[in-house]
Design a protein that fits this description.
The structure holds two protein chains of two kinds. Chain A is 17% helix and 20% strand. In chain A, strands 4-3-5 form a three-stranded antiparallel sheet, with helices on one face. In chain A, strands 1-2 form a two-stranded antiparallel sheet. Chain A has a single domain, classed as Ubiquitin-like (UB roll) (Roll), CATH 3.10.20.520. By secondary structure, chain A is of the alpha+beta class. The N terminus of chain A is likely disordered. Chain B has one domain: Up-down Bundle (Ferritin), CATH 1.20.1260. In chain B, 61% of the residues lie in helices and 0% in strands. Chain B contains 13 helices and no strands. In chain B, α7 runs antiparallel to α12 and α8 packs antiparallel against α9. Classes of the chains: A alpha+beta, B mainly alpha.
Chain lengths: 125, 298
C-alpha cells in the first residue's frame, strides 16, 4: 500500500474521506485498503444505568463514529445514550502491572460491602 | 423481595434490564413496540377500498423495492459499519412495506398475506416509482438516490400522520422516526463525498446526475393519490415539492454540489405499473424462491 493510499483528507471540513487508487467505491471492487481510526463505544441501556463499553468501530470522525455506533450497537433496542471515544485517547493498564496494581486488594475482604443488607428499593446494585 | 432475590438480579444483568416486560428473547435490548397496538384496523365506512389498497401498494412497493436495492449492498459496502447502517435502513423500509402490504390486503378485501403481494405479483402490478428500481450504481449514486427518496418520503409520511385512515396514520408515525435517520445518514454522506476529495466530489456529482431525471415522477400525482388526498386519507405528492426542493438545495449547497439540470421526464410511470427492465431483473431474484417452491415456509 502506498503512502498516498493511506492518507485521508478533509478539505471541505465535513470529515475525512479515504483517498488513493485502492479505495473501493462500488460493487465488484474488493481490493485491500486502509481503514479509518478506531473508536471505543459506550452505551447506556436504560436511564439510571451506567454507560457500558460494548465494543469498537472505525470512523473518520466523532460524528460518523456516533452514527456508526447507533447502527452497529443499538440495532436491538439496547440504548438510550451513546458515547464514542477515540481508542487512541484511552490510557490502559498493562498486563505487566497486574501484580502490583491488583493483587494487593485481593486479601482485603473488609473492603467489600458484604456485611449489611442492601435495601430492597435500591435498584441496580 | 429478600436478599437472595437481589443477588439473583445482580447476577442476571440481562434479566434486570428486561424486567419491565416479558421480552426475554434478546440478550440486552427490550421493550419492543407494536406499531399498530390499539389501532382500529377495519376499513372505515365511506373509504374506497380499491383506492386505499392501490395507495398502500404505491407506498409499500416504494419501500419494498428500495429495501431490496439496499440489501444488495450487503457484503459490498465500503465499510463494515456502513454495511450495517445500509442493512438497517433496508430493514426499516421492509418493515414499512410489510405493514402497508398487509393494509392493502385488508383494504381490497382479499386478506391475502403480505408475501402474496411481495412474491406473487408481476412487474406490471407493482406501483413503485422508477427511482427506487434503478440499479445501485456506485456508493455515491446509491446515497444520492437514498437522499432523494428519504427526503421525499419523510415529507410524505410527515403529512400522512394525520390521515383519516388510522392504520396509515400509525404506519406514518412510526416511519417518520425511521426515515428522519435515513435522510440524515444520506445527507451526511453526501456532505462527505461532495465536499471531500476531487474523486469523491466527481462520484457524488455523477451519482446525483444519474438519478436526478427520476425526481419529477415522485411529485406527479396519480389519480388515486388525488382522490385520497381529497378524502383526507392520502397525500397529494405535488404538495411536497417545495419542502423537497428546500431540503435538497440545503444539502447540495453544503456539499458543494449543484442541482443537475432538469432532464426530460422518463416515460415510465411506476404508479401506473409501468416499469423499466431493472425491476423485472430485481423481481426475478427476489421472487425466485417463492415462485419455484410455492408452499415453502421460512
Amino acid at each position: 500500500m502506498t503512502d498516498e493510499a493511506k492518507s485521508f483528507t478533509a478539505e471541505g471540513g465535513h470529515g475525512a474521506v479515504p483517498t488513493g487508487s485502492d479505495v473501493p467505491t462500488g460493487s465488484g471492487t474488493a481490493t485491500p485498503r486502509n481503514s479509518w481510526p478506531l473508536w471505543e463505544v459506550f452505551v447506556r441501556g436504560k436511564r439510571g444505568l451506567n454507560h457500558v463499553h460494548v465494543g469498537s468501530l472505525h470512523a473518520a470522525d466523532g460524528e460518523m463514529a456516533l452514527g456508526n455506533a447507533r447502527d452497529v450497537y443499538t440495532r436491538r433496542n439496547e440504548g438510550v445514550s451513546i458515547w464514542v471515544v477515540p481508542a487512541a485517547a484511552i490510557t490502559a493498564s498493562s498486563p505487566d502491572e497486574k501484580d502490583s496494581f491488583f493483587a494487593p486488594s485481593g486479601d482485603k475482604v473488609y473492603r467489600h460491602p458484604t456485611f449489611y443488607e442492601i435495601p430492597d428499593n435500591v435498584p441496580h446494585m | 423481595m429478600g436478599h437472595n432475590d437481589h443477588q439473583d438480579d445482580f447476577a442476571d444483568a440481562y434479566g434486570s434490564i428486561a424486567a419491565d416486560n416479558d421480552e426475554h428473547r434478546w440478550a440486552f435490548g427490550s421493550g419492543f413496540d407494536d406499531p399498530l397496538a390499539g389501532v382500529d384496523t377495519s376499513v372505515q365506512s365511506g373509504v374506497d377500498g380499491t383506492d386505499l389498497a392501490t395507495y398502500c401498494l404505491m407506498l409499500g412497493d416504494d419501500a419494498l423495492v428500495l429495501s431490496h436495492r439496499l440489501q444488495e449492498w450487503v457484503s459490498w459496502a465500503p465499510e463494515l459499519e456502513d454495511e450495517v447502517a445500509i442493512a438497517n435502513i433496508g430493514l426499516d423500509l421492509l418493515g414499512q412495506a410489510r405493514l402497508l402490504l398487509a393494509r392493502a390486503a385488508k383494504a381490497d378485501g382479499s386478506d391475502r398475506g403480505e408475501d402474496a403481494y411481495a412474491y406473487l405479483r408481476d412487474p406490471s402490478e407493482f406501483r413503485n416509482v422508477t427511482l427506487v428500481e434503478l440499479d445501485n450504481g456506485d456508493f455515491a449514486q446509491s446515497l444520492a438516490r437514498l437522499l432523494i427518496f428519504s427526503t421525499y418520503r419523510l415529507a410524505l409520511l410527515d403529512r400522512l400522520r394525520t390521515s383519516r385512515d388510522p392504520v396509515l396514520a400509525a404506519i406514518a408515525a412510526k416511519g417518520v422516526k425511521e426515515v428522519t435517520y435515513h435522510r440524515d445518514y444520506a445527507a451526511r454522506w453526501m456532505l462527505r463525498l461532495g465536499d471531500g476529495t476531487g474523486e469523491s466530489h466527481s462520484r457524488a456529482d455523477s451519482g446525483l446526475t444519474a438519478v436526478w431525471p427520476y425526481v419529477d415522477e415522485l411529485f406527479a400525482p396519480h389519480e388515486v393519490e388525488v382522490r385520497l388526498a381529497a378524502a383526507g386519507i392520502g397525500v397529494d405528492p405535488s404538495s411536497l415539492r417545495a419542502e423537497f426542493d428546500s431540503v435538497v438545495a440545503e444539502v447540495l449547497s453544503a456539499a458543494t454540489l449543484t442541482e443537475p439540470a432538469r432532464a426530460d421526464a422518463p416515460s415510465a410511470r411506476g404508479r401506473n405499473g409501468e416499469h423499466i427492465q431493472a425491476l423485472t431483473t430485481l423481481l426475478t431474484e427476489m421472487q425466485g424462491l417463492a415462485r419455484s417452491l410455492p408452499d415453502a415456509t421460512w
